[in-house]
Structures
1.
Amino acid sequence: MRKAAKTLEARNASPLLVSLSAVFLGIIAGSIFILFIGKNPFDGFEKILFGALSSRRRIGNTLGMSTQLILIGLSVAFAFKTGLFNIGASGQMLVGGITGSILAYYLPMDMPRVLYLPIIVIAAAVAGGFWGFISGLLKAKFNVHEVVSTIMLNWIAYWMVYDFIPRFIIDPTISVKSKPIPLEHTLRAEWLRNITGFSTLNYGFFIAIAMAVVVWFILKKTTLGFSLKAVGSNRFCAEYAGINVSGSIMISMAIAGALSGLAGLTYYCGYSEIMEMGKMPNEGFDGIAVALLGNCSPLGVFFSAIFFGILKMGRGSLAATGIPTEIADTIIATVIYFTATNVLLSAFWNERFRQSFEKKEEAASAAMKANGDARSVSELSRKEFESLAKAGRHLLKEGR
Amino acid sequence: MEFWSVLSSIIPSAIAYTMPLLMGALGGLYSERSGVTNLCIEGLMLFGCFSSAAVIVKLQAIPGFSYTLALVIGIIAAMAASALLSLLHAFASINLKSNQVISGTAINMLSTAVSLFLAQTITGSGNITIVRGVIRSNIPLLSEIPIIGQLLFSRTYWTTWICLSLWLFSWFLLYRTSFGLRLRACGEHPSAVASAGVNVHRMRYIGVIASGLLSGLGGACILVTYAGEYNAGSGINGLGFLAIAALIFGQWKPLGILGSTFFFGLCMTIANMGKVFPVFQGIPAGYLGMFPYAATLIALILSSRKSSAPLASGEPF
């Protein structure tokens, strides 16, 4: 009985519906901007889809771009689940990337790949993890808000890379870039390049998928994940329950940093093969959008990263239409604003659902009256309710 | 003698670097004191910088149009534009009670993307360079004072004096008027203020819009004083976040933020002008660039332990 009563309620907006609405509104906002400069939005979106998905090579590039977005999205999402806001992904990426690049430069070329790949993967994760750990330490021990400390660490990493490139891995011909890493020392693989027409798709994509599974496993299946989430939802309650809050904050930021460090590795030693001086990777901020849009679940992060990957790769084809490529960033930013204001979106949908439910309720009771059914609406099963509502709607229409 | 020449070239620049930070931090002060966490100072300042650049470039291109008037109109436009953008944050955090940190981040990204997008359509390259910024001038009489005159009153920008008077005005408004008391109370115990018949939502709107106006002014100051161009690539290099850090370091107090922003301004000067001075020439560019951010982190470590943040900052009401 209780179950029936529970099912007979207006539906609530699911996170998926809210996310899709945010995407929809983001696209509307992007269209308004395109219209504003006197261009046709449909042309623009067609070009974006064309640029991202029209050939095997383009799909490969889109997945290559999505790779780092998945990893950063996971990083932000993981920190989020544990109550922390990691906007230092850019810096952690730079640190992971420079570690990988320096190792790629100095490790012997005849080293077997099976040995080489794990070394750079672990090194990048450890370096990024250390960078994240600093923010965690500052938060746990000195009460420094992680948002401010991670931003400062982003800029420190930026200048550190600025210093390290000329010191260790400079390209003598172009003195603001690092020397390109030879193919055997990147994450790229011959067979992946062959099936995707020499795209940027690399082993990083598989690392990203593996990490999505690992994050899901840690959060859902381990005591560590449980205590991290407990700290995230109520710090004081967790402390009372005997969970080491300071330790949790530090571990959580270190794991988030490690994920971003891996993103940096796939970005600088897979997707691209050089690092530039004086360039802050924007992907660190896009990762926030990925995490929020994906409702911080690993699967959601995966799909929203693909969506943003399409936007970011496809915008290259916009040049022909005269629409500035920044439209993609505008759409991404609008999407985050609407995911941040998800209260508005879910309120909108909940109201819609409630209205339609009330209409159905009215129709169903009318139908029951006509049938001489003495039960009240709340006693019906979902199926009966739906069919009665349908019948009732006809009755009400005829009555009018 | 060398020390004096270094000092007399560092201090005026440090003051120029301080003003945008001071305006950003003061904006943050209004917002956080009224109870809204404002992490979008960066975005608001950037948007102010861009809007003033766009307006000034258009006006200065008109033949015969006064350069100074163009600057004034540009600054006002920047304040208006950033105030409009801050309304988005106010609406999200006050009416919709959404997560203010996320909303702030979204505004930062939105500001970067929209200003880049518009800059691309205006100039094609994304960089906007104005013909002429504010001309430095000596203050009559005061600049004649030995030592202090040369450090503080020689070759100053007039925007500096506007910023400083706004700082003084804000201190008076927040600490010497009943309006200020109410605004601050909204950030500490909003329900108590509400029961006294004050409209908390309205006060918070005022706080956030004030932060928009001031950050917009700060962004415009960057453009018309030392930068001279809006650069889409580097934006404002995280100055807005430095302003927030200065707000924390200054313990959410007007005098505190004046001191902390000047400290950061000094660090920025050393980072940006380090190459000019023989004292710093041995230091690699990377370390000099890192210096203000590392100094900020250390300052935060020292000051965050006993935080006197407004109690209800970040709490929806």
2.
Amino acid sequence: MKQFSKVFKFEFLNIIRSKAFIFLTLLLFIGTTVVLFYPRFKGDSKAPSIGESEPTRLAIVDSSDKFGEFIKENMPDYEITLCKTADEANALLKEESVDGSVVITSPLTYTYSVNDMGLYDETANVISELLQFKYRETRLSEFGLTDSQIAEIQSAVAVPEYKIVGQDQSQSFLYTYILLFMLYMSVIAYGQMIAQSVATEKSSRAMELLITSAKPDSLIFGKVLGTGFAGLSQILVILLWALVCYRINAPFWENNFFIASIFDMPLSLIGYTAVFFVLGFLIYAFLYGALGSLASKMEDIGTLTTPLTFVMIIAFMVPIMSISTGKVDSAIMKVLSFIPFCSPMAMFARIAMSTVSPVHIAISIAILILSNIGIGYIAVLIYRMGILMYGKPPKFTQVLKQLKK
Amino acid sequence: MKLSVNEIYKSFGEKNVLKGISFSAESGKALGILGRNGAGKTTLIRIIMQVFGADAGTVLLDGKPINTEKVHIGYLPEERGLYPKQKIMTQLLYFAELKGVDKKQAKATADKYFKELEIEQYKNVRLDTLSKGNQQKIQLIAALIANPDIIILDEPFSGFDPVNAGMLKNIVKELIKDGKMVLFSSHQMNYIEEFCDDIIILNGGKSVLDGSIKKIKRSYARNVLEIATQESEKSLSVLQNADLPFVNKAEIIEGTLTVTLKGEENKPELIKFAAENLPDMDGIYIKEPTLADIFIHYTEGSV
């Protein structure tokens, strides 16, 4: 225990004194400050937007002469040219004096030609909407309705009233996304750091002195927990700073739903964040430490840790895709919520964005704690064997064989 | 204190590295552990230091199983290694603290050796800014910082120039004088002979020879004599022409006239003959085997 605390302290101080750590912390610090203070200096409460875009230029061919002017009136954001023939419009499109052309062939059919279809191209939707409007207006007047009756029907809109019993996913999406991403980044970054640090001790042969001075259990636990603690303190400091910045600038953020939603995170979720973050981090960190001990040179680390990094990427990608599509409670997410390497992200995403029974949460956490103990034990075994082994890194099957002994 | 290693066996997988090694060492003395590369020296050292256990056999200190948490063992590994990017004093104190030594005490010990090794100016710089010889000195301090009772030095002189080697020699002599137990592994036989009263030679996982160097040398036949003379060539022809019945062979080895007798008992006859017949003779000495000769004799051909 005494040795453990010495190793823990040494590793912790090593990291927080390292240039990379200080630089990254400063960068995050500055980034958070700039983003959260931005509206105060911009002077209004709008979120920063990426410049004004130029209006879309559109050529419209309407042989019936019924729709052209109507569309032009109702699409003020567009720069509209009315053409006589389709050939004329095509020529304009070809020489790129317009971005797209619409050839209306009947009251409800038209061809929309465009050079490059944008990701958020709404043109066709708007045109369809307008043509449908015009069509209904014509038909309704044919049925003998008065203009005011028609106007009433056309302007009728159904207004929903939301009553959310569980979680509002639009509320919780952003902070869930951010927290998942933070866990992912810290496992990848600090996990690699642990693996490298173990491998450096081996390649510089400092290990020769370490193993004759301390127990391997103290060495790996001290390193994993010391590094993890450094990473957690960094995240905690940045989050607290972000909260302070937000509070100072709260009035300027009032109208920004997204940013405000991050800081309206329910308190219970902070508890879950801590539990899943710590357990999720440790289970990977133990294995990164163990894998680092199998490397004799720094170059070996990549090959050794790639499989684990892949597991991490899958454990990250599935929840991210699920929350992006809104299907947090899909069958695969439910299964992943109970699998140790995935549950820190999958279960956390479900707790944050839907309603999960407390029993399931308890089971998931219990499995994760037990797995942490198991993986910690296995990591010590691999580490003990690995640190005395030099030369080519062993194959996975060889490691298993050795462990059996 | 008395360290006794009894019948140690150790194998890694199919490979039997140690096959029944026994020896003992005492405080205030240095024991030389010799063996060709791969003879199992490092494995033996690691077992003594409890890095891993032996398959069979015991390591006892004063009759009780050794406990590295109670008795400090200082170790200078053959594969030198410390943290290259760490400040020197920081890492030295870290290693001392890992062994459970008080920080202040460790600092005092370190300061003493920094002074003795004339590297006081490097206390707070990074290790990798030092020359190889100076890094070696830091490695030595790391071995001694816990003020250990048992000190294991594996090739301590490699990489040292003669001046630094002299400093190290003084420290080792001082340690022995202070009643420390020194286990000394080296391929530089002259250093072994200088410090060690006793040696053990490992070969093929067994100890093929152990005991005091003097006794071992005595045990060799004392029938080879070296004749010191300025006239080696002339003397050789005199001896050959005389065709003495008790002389097996007379030859010049590396410039020295060397005579092999039929038996030890023929020494007086040769001395008498030489005194009377050889021109300008300075003296006659028994040719003892060097430690290198003994080492080669016991380890040649197999590992």
3.
Amino acid sequence: MLKLQTLSVIFVLIIVPITILLSYYIDNQIDTVALQNSYDAKLLNATYDAIVAFEVNTKNNTYSTNAESIRRDINASINTFTKSLANNFGVSGTSKNNMLTYIPALVYTLYDGYYIYAPIPKTTIDENGNPVITYEHTLKPYIYYTSRYTNTAKNTDFIVNYSLDNYIVVYGNINGNYYSEAGYLIYANKYEDYIFQNTDETYYNDKALDFFKKNEHFSNNKSYYENATEYYKNAKDFTERFNNKIKDLGQLNTVINGETITVDAKDIFVVSEDNDPDNKLSPFVEHKSTIIKASIESNLKSAIASYNARSILNDTTYDFKMPILDEVEWDKMLSNVSIISFMQGLPVGMNTYNNYMIVTSTENKQCIDEEAIYFVTTDYAGNEGKYYHRINCPLLNEEITNEPGRIIKGYKSIEFNGIYEVTENSLGEKIGKYNYNGHTALACYECIVESRVGSFQYDEDNLITFKDKDGNELSDADLTKFRKAYYNALFKERNKLSKVSSYVNDANGNSKF
Amino acid sequence: MENTFVTIIAIVLAAVLMFIFPMMSMSQRTDDVSQLAVQTATEDFVVDVRTSGKLTEDRLDEYMTVLYSTGNSYDVEISIDVLDENPGKKTAQVSSDKIGENITYSIYTTQIEGNLERDGYILLKEGDNINVSVKNSNTTIAQMFINVFYSITGNDTYAIAAQSSGIITTTGR
């Protein structure tokens, strides 16, 4: 009996401490995970606040595409990020800047390049006259999505600046001649049937023309038609001339991630049915994506290495690392303006926090998102229908079916969301009002408010396709009508987009291909 | 007589100390580990939906698989607050300190499941909200032990629960 009691006591003496320790460890792990989850949410919220600040500032800034002006907008967005992060962490006042200690980099990927906000070394002299190195977060110069191509045998050495869509800037020597030109690469043949023609009665009759001439919104002094057709003509012309100059260059050397690789000029740059720059799977787009990813990765690695230098200086032991972004995340970043925020080295329970968040903008003036163009029908008097839609919304089709005379027009989604303006009335009171650029239509509940209409569908020629509200294929005539509405709106918006790098186009036509 | 009584007490004590106490303790730790897994999975799921603007059937299945891998069954409640900006747009004038009068309306678990069954995904837009809460619906071993000593009745009879919510940061495609 005594033996059993002794064994019990020994058993309890062994088990109880183990259980208590295990319990403590697991509780601690749970707290750590909970804290880590809350940090994830805080980082995501701060990044979202930053992108909203960027969207609001650029939307209300007429000069937001100007390089210096956008730096101000980005600095304001970074300020919002820091404040939001500090507030989320319950840090306020001057100590909020301490949060930056854990931010090795913030990346703003824009239309044709990106900004990195990261610590850089700064040398000051202390009271004894000794140099002291400190690190200060700074918005580094704008980096274009760019690559250099050389073929010494053919006296060729030129640079291509890429963008998130098919707009490129090319400058340098090709076959010994200097060229400098910017433009859109398109496979024009597939759009031939969908460009406004003078004989197109639906779009081009006297009444409609008169209305559009008088009532264009943000038309840059060009009509809806002119913008769309100008894009098509210029892009077709640019593509043909560029292709003619480049098709016989053969193998070109370019450097990606520090390694020289060889690409065939014809395979990458010459546009054809199999290399359609509007198709995300084309060799041109794949090559462009590789260039952009390599550029961002190498510059980020360098920024984070700088952060490691800081940690050595501060005698911390955390080894800051550049995380590996997966393909889905890259796709997000290459689809529109995005912010990637990194947070590393923050103590979290028994571990150290290390994570990043990517938030993609949906509404900005920097980039044309193919799916963020909304369509509204108008009669010849210019009265808009009740709702604006996405192009693949069955209710848009229904509006046209019910009243075949109506015209479909598309605008960037940002135009329907309005700009907040404050004016004074006669009594000196401030009155706030949204300016919707003259649009009276409201968001369609089917496709915009509830997003019940799915993503765009494309056929084997990579042309957008539609179905009616019963899920049936449209007739050829209807399909052409909707494609015409969609592509002309897309082309118009692309033509209106201000591009800083377009300065390379010489007004006198010199150095054109 | 006295010896028999002491022996019985000793056996009971030994049983409690050597069997019930470790079992209770280990089952509670099991619940803790489940709690850890459920909390992490829920947070990951919500962050994924918030940053992609898309709730897919596959992603929901993956989330449910993680939950069920803990050996318990769960009640998962998902609600989406859909932002409707139209009422704000109908207001011609607002005072300068107001920024629109937007409203939201909610869709709940059964509607969401219905939409997912029909289309395979639900697209969300920037400004919508997602809220996920999960709690175990079975009785865990730790709960059974606790119920021996005292019973809890009512809705809060769960041992494992997690909740996460947030605003959708990008319009889904």
